[in-house]
Target: Methionine ABC transporter ATP-binding protein
Amino acid sequence: MIELEGIHQTYRGPQGPVHALRGIDLQVARGEVFGVIGRSGAGKSSLVRTINLLNRPTQGRVTVAGRELTALDARGLREARRGIGMVFQHFNLLSSRTVFGNVALPLELEGLDVAAIRARVGPLLELVGLSGLADRYPAQISGGQKQRVGIARALASRPQVLLSDEATSALDPETTRAILALLRQINRELQLTVVLITHQMQVIKQVAHRVAVLEAGEVVEQGETLQVFSRPAHPMTRSLLDDVVPRELPAHVLERVRALLAPTGGHGGASLLRLVFAGADGDRPLLSDLVRRFGLDLNIVHGQIDEVQGLPFGSLAVLARGAQAQLQAAIGHLRAAGVQVQEIAHA
Ligand SMILES: Nc1ncnc2c1ncn2[C@@H]1O[C@H](COP(=O)(O)OP(=O)(O)OP(=O)(O)O)[C@@H](O)[C@H]1O
Model:
């Protein structure tokens, strides 16, 4: 649905050229929610804005729904852009227009008559849950409601693609969840292709089918969200994932574990293991396997279980005691079952 080929974006900065995008190749399939994540300055806004040529890349080709946008003239581009809606971090609503008036604006610009506009805007306001607020002004509604207006406006021209430029960054966590759920609902019900950029893995976790990680203008990793979450390959991905599943144990937990790891005078060993599991692994009785099959004593010292795309995802720190050979066999068993195992400490 969306194809970016060899995209470079160079700005003229006060201290010389800024290479914001350095050779991006990306493909987004029809009907998917594709997330782009990166730290501030990574080039996310530049990237999402090349998809509708709000930013014309210095080099490279942009194709959306089979049309090469970078080859169109101004008129062709205007028309193609109707197929691409966009929502913004700060909503970009006109304060002098009501909720209805804001959603109606792109339709007025398209030249639709009053009856046609009413017929289009009513269902859109219902879709985003704002039917009762049509006559309010932006100053009279909450941030989450403003973003709902932004989404309805973006959908007014019946686009095939929706771009979201940090749409939830100005919202509190609960409103963020509600807006993301709405985006996901729209993606499903309207079979809309969604590209969203964010600096928060929480956002990716909740809605994106696939994700690309951007660093210094380059895609350093991409893949299915669950795959990237469970087996992050690049240090930047791991660092971004720390916000969701911290890799380091909190200091007070480590201290407690050290005391537990102190030699007890027995014959066996003890290992502090960090287990990361994703997807269906979470449904298997792996911990009872360790006890039953390998005769280990287990002590869960820390953990976090979450969901990615409705599938279990999480990490556990487990203190395992038992015979050395059995400990090693148990680690092999877990790895064979697709669980990532890291031995944090050993005694
Ligand atoms: N119009 C511009 N002129 C000059 N430099 C720019 C311009 N727009 C962006 N940049 C620079 O390009 C780089 C990428 O910026 P961009 O806004 O795309 O990143 P971002 O990942 O969206 O960051 P943020 O999350 O902080 O918005 C940054 O170094 C930024 O300073």
